Protein 1
Amino acid sequence: MPNFHTEHFDTLAYPSTFGETTFLYEARSQRGNILIMASMGGEPILIRIHPKKEGGFLVKGDKATRPTQASFLQKVLIDFRDASNAKEIFSNIEPKKFLHVKPSAYLKEIGFFAHSFQPEREIWIEIGFGSGRHLLHQAKKNPHIQFIGLEIHKPSIEQVLKQCELQCIENILVVDYDARLFMEFLSSNRVGRIFVHFPVPWDKKPHRRVFSASFIEEALRVLHVKGTLELRTDSPLYFEFTFSQMMQLSKAEVHVKKNAELEITSKYEDRWLKMEKDIYDVVLTNEIHSEEIERLGTLNFEQNVDFSKIAHAFKEELLRGDGFFVHFEELFEINAKSGLIRLSFGANERNEKCYICIEEGKVSYLPNAILATKSNLAAHTLIKEWFDGICH
């Protein structure tokens, strides 16, 4: 993350423009932390300033606002440094190190699947594609299928994107997102196969596994009749856990294999085979046609709130529901009527980190595109109840 350390900085006049950046406002918390809202290229970017125990300040971008180009954040930090006469102690924002992200037609943000994805072909999904051997092999073998690859390991994503371009493979879309929630973004009865090959076993933390009752339920909804959900693992515990989850279904067609040979093997499978480990396959076949669901929207607030009451009553607080939570972390004051609340919320396994912006009574999320997944919607309802409890 681009950042710099400084002994001091001058307070800016707001709003003001310096270089390519417009600085809109400043907000401060009781902990002494500072947020500065900036804008470059039409994108909002929050600068976060932390006082350091040993003196001085750490100045960096806030993770809640991630610009499409990392170089935007570097340039904003440089403009703030120069506009505020900050003297650097340490910095990694030099122009020679500007971070440019090469766009790829194969890489999609989750919002694309929430709002724009309308495939005309059958879909196959691979969760945690790793080196991409299996995903690339299947895509080349089945050009009539639309593949979606989910992965959170950035080097693996870059490797597959590069191979798609080098080999002219046009039927793969890649997304960096938690697979346990991704199914909510897909239409019913559109998927033919879901591959989960050699997931992290999480033997000591089974709650972190991809497979769960809710994951299997969503997988069956998106699969068409005779579509399959397929686990391949070297972990006997993961195999037994998944099989037991499938056996809890009221009706299920499940096939189990041991040490079956595939046309293509992953680098992990090659490793396990050299170690003479057993490989387990469990395949669940869907037999039910599911009802269609509405496409996910975004979360919005309808009510107005009194920021002065919120500021007076605010405290760091963690609220929990069934499978979701809301953590109110820190309040920042812009003026007596406006401010920001830093919070995280959503599913226990994956959560949103964002701000709630309150300006003259109006409430919105920052960034303003929080998707209405089941867990996010439940948390959003709890947040609105929290506001009502304070303001009414």
Note: The longest helix spans residues 374-391.
Protein 2
Amino acid sequence: MTREKTALNDIPRDRLTGPLRRGAVKKHVAAIHISGKLTLLQRKLSNVLLLNAYDTLTSQTRHQIDARTLCLMIGYNSNDIETLKLALRGLAETVAEWDMLDSEGQQEWGVSALLSFARLKGGVCEYAYSPALAEKLHDPKVFALINLNIQRRFTSGHALALYENCYRFVRTGSTGWWPIELFRRLMGVADSPYYDEFKHLNAKIIKPAVAEVNKTSNIVVTPEFRKMGRAVTDVRFLISENPQLAILDLDDGEGHRNSDIYARLRGLGVSDRLARQWIREHGETVMGKRLDFVAAQGDVRNPVGYLTRVLRDDGSEVSPRNQAPAAAPVLSDRARRLERIRDLAAARTPTQRDADRRLFLARLEGAARDDFEKHGWMSALNVKAIAAFWEEVSPGAFDGLPEE
């Protein structure tokens, strides 16, 4: 992926992150850790918040996501807002500390709360990061991004912490050696005397966490230990890709990056996220035909904008330059309603769009579900249900349009 975007991972600000390797720098350049332990809910929450804010981390000071989407994306199907408040408070009270080399090779130390601000109001969660932490979180050479589809499968905070701290090393095949003291901090058990004894750490933390990572995620980890005398002093994890990944259907669009259609879209100037979204929504065959159509128009002033119009109009022949059609067609009531739905969906953030689809799919079954999975919000079998859903999401969305 262009900048390792599988759903926000590694220390999405939460939790400490052990030795990191930065680009071509072949040495230990960073150690990021937190002042306290994060629960499984808090870890998942911090990852979703980071993914939602990632594209505007350094350009916006505050970020928003609706609470329903937030709960869905962390697999928290509850209306217990008090628990969500406690989780947000925990992130605001947890300190992240980093000690790393900057781009010029100078040592940099810093500390910041994981969240500098959080508020729940009107069903919306608004939150912010400190500028310094936002800069670190946005650096793809320091942080890897975790696939949220995988994250939601975890039931243990220790397993998720192990996954986050191993996943960024998947390309190198090993985490490198971690002192046992550092590993205990990474797992959030440094303050528990019980885990000072390695046999307890191995039986209660390492073995169960390794088993869940290997069963649940897209990587397989194997622990190795180094001893001094009879005492275990260091641990490392060998990492390989999980061959069950395709069966588990955990891909959030990563596979599309290997296709020729994706390469053509990127070559045209389409963003990574939009390219994957279009391939997912329209399929490679349709996208190939639309790209061929655009290419046949010759020197189009704004090829991405023109392709957007072609997709919007379902491939009908659109004027490639600035010529307007001789006469604008009169849209039917249904077409106007579908156009409104398309605009509503397009206005949502990528995280929200994913949550919207999941929420609506949960209401469907049989042929209706199949049709929606194929055609999305333009599904003819689900017109009324889709309209009702968007009216719930955005009350008054269809004001001014005739009833169907």
Note: The first helix runs from residue 40 to 53.
Protein 3
Amino acid sequence: MSDRVKTVHDPVHGGIRVDGFFLEIMDRHEMQRLRGVKQLGMGNFVFPGANHTRFEHCLGTYYLAGRMAKAIGLSEEDSLAVRTAAMMHDICHAPFSHTLEAVMEDATGLDHMELARNLICGKGKVFRDRDADLLAGSGSIADILESNGIDPVEVCDLIAYPESTERDLDNLTLDGMDHFPSKDYIHQIIHGPVDADQMDYLMRDAHYTGVVMGNIDVDRLLSTMRVVNDRICIERGGAPAAEGLMVSRALMYSSVYYHQTVRVLERMVTKAVLSSDLDLSEIYLWDDSDMTQALLSAGGSSSRLMRLVQNRMFYKKALEVSAGDVDEELSRILMKYKDHRKRIELEQHIADKAGLDVSEVVLEMTSSANLGSAKIKIGKTDVSIVGEDGKVRPLTRTSPIAKALQSRDSFSWSMLVACPEDKKEAVARATSKVLGL
């Protein structure tokens, strides 16, 4: 392993030490593309400071994964694997991040995590044709990992949501501390109730949006973190810090991630892509500027929509279904359109009824849980707390704050339809007729 070391100055975590083969990975073209992919998609049109990228988020996740690995006493081999996975966990995010995720899945047949598996292992194209003169013969990331004794398959499994071991919390005790049957706790560093990914994005997104809701007591969480029978848990003394993380997560989702204007903007960009004849089979190799220029050059409604966005001439809300108005019958109707393709069909139906072009109607929904009778639950699972008696219990069982957050309706709206301002009345009427509102 190389002795080279660099310190990257990060506004969230301070100095991040990057050494050895991690430097090679960081400087690879696959990672450098992420400098051109904004972390919050179109969020900077509402939060002007939100110009941070997936690249810095990946570095932050790598840093926190290393701290977590040290906190729970991982071996050097396991620590290297999970830090590698953390650095590359978003390596195949589409342009504008989550905005075009469904479009990318349709175009490639794979989500960004499975695409990452292929990219890392050198299956298929790993750079665009225009860069062949620079990158031909550069090999794959898997070559770097193997030459440093790291199993690429293990790293990819950590990125691509391997099946998690589910245990009955009431039956977990400290008796099995020395026996970890599946090492699922390693996977939980990337995908878990208290993981490096969400800790970084909550802190980073709060920092750049200026929203004061993403503060997390990382030091306290790490100092009280331990493994109990394959599960990352927090000791009782760290429960307030775990509550703080849950509060931050809930408020950031309702205030930033599901901000109505941002969601309308993202849908306008999605509509621009769907209106084009672009070949999207290599979309995972594009960055934001690539997509923007391609849409502007496509002409027609694709160019118009992208120019509207660039000039902040957004579609206006024509109709909103509030979360409190979703009864059992309306829930049944809306759930039919959660699928990406079904939603496109619904937009077409509304446009036809209103006598408009489909490019003038955008429809957005919140999560499936928010459309149903059950309240939405933000996050993967409940935080596990280990008490002085050695038993592990969900935080919601002992914390009124956590219990309230898990049942909190995090979104005031369930569905909204937007269009050009002078078409609002026609679109509202058409939507009401189509959905029987």
Note: Residues 5-242 form a domain with the Hypothetical protein af1432 fold (CATH 1.10.3210.10).
Protein 4
Amino acid sequence: MGFYQRDFMEGTRGTMGVDWEERIDFQRMRRERKERALERMREAGLGSMLLVNDPNVRYVTGLAMTGGSGADHYTLLTEDGDVVHWDTADHASNQRFNCPWLDDIRYAAPGLGNVPRASGSSSARDWLKDKMADLVVEAMAEYGVEKEPMGIDVGNRSLLSKFEERGVDVRPGECADVMEDARKVKTRDEIECLRMVAALCEAGFQRITETAKPGMRESEVWGEATKELWRLGAMVQGGYVTSGPNTWPKHQANTTDRVIRPGDLVYADFYNIGFMGYRSCYYRTFSVGEPTQAQQDAYEKARDDLYDVLERIEPGATTDEICEGFPDEAGEQMDWYGADEFWEMTTNHWAHGLGLQLYEVPLIWRGLSPDHPIEIEEGMTMAVETMRPADRQGVRVEEMVVVRENGVEILSQWPVEEITTIEH
């Protein structure tokens, strides 16, 4: 199919809101996301859904869920499109003032997570779940959906039993399917958020080229990169810089206090860098001084593997067909790892969906896709990543893409043809 070519002036613009051109339309994004979830909920025969997982809550409400202590914020979406949101005292009071598109915000009883766990009391944990269930059932009755099936996106057995005791037909499986289906294909504004986060990552890569040199520690270089990301408005909730022998196999601690030396390969994985909640996954490899011929050859092979996969991705293709572009047993270095099957090689060569979470639909991987294929759809967004070892070090490379009708659009734009050389 080839690659999608953007039109003139199509793509990332400024990071701020302005009145003189159309940029990301957040009002439209909130509306379209909620409509997608609502349409699929109705198709599934659910009268309401209780959303506890942060990405699902954000998808439906637009609220900036940045992590919490568990079920201290949750949202009920009804079949008529009504939204009831429960949150902590400070958050709820701020949301009432700042979020006029939500008109029913209440205080939460945290039935799951850190609060009940920290109580140290089984009776306290039971009371909190009872209280959470009571609050939700009361709201269901107010909005006339108490007799209809309710989806829920967590499978906590004790919480489910609380709803069942109150006569609620609670359905966790259907809710998971609804939200997975709603979120797997992105709207135009969601895609622009991902394009924007790729641009912010590239600013972080630039900072690495300016600071990675002999005598700097990995942690110092990573600190400079994250400072740049925060300056531009990114939410940094993951990622790392690693160097030299830590690049293959990838060090378990990721960024360490290792001192960078001449001749080192350095790679950065900007994963879980967020813009408006949308997450990146974006690798690039750097060399402190000229890379060796073996390292250049390894990088060329990793890049070619990556683009072999990209050229297979199109609407209607299936993940079992696409995963054949990833390396075979030899390319996976399975003998070195002592691995016999592809499922043992998690994270080395695969493609995974991107959105409000780091891993969304689809997953393209030799460890699963041959026996469990799914079909690729236009509008899916994903990160595709490959790696290779060379001279006791390793190279990694990754692209962020969106599936278009005539091939993938590559959202990432940092040069990919060869290892980025850092002079010192």
Note: The two ends are 41 Å apart (CA to CA).
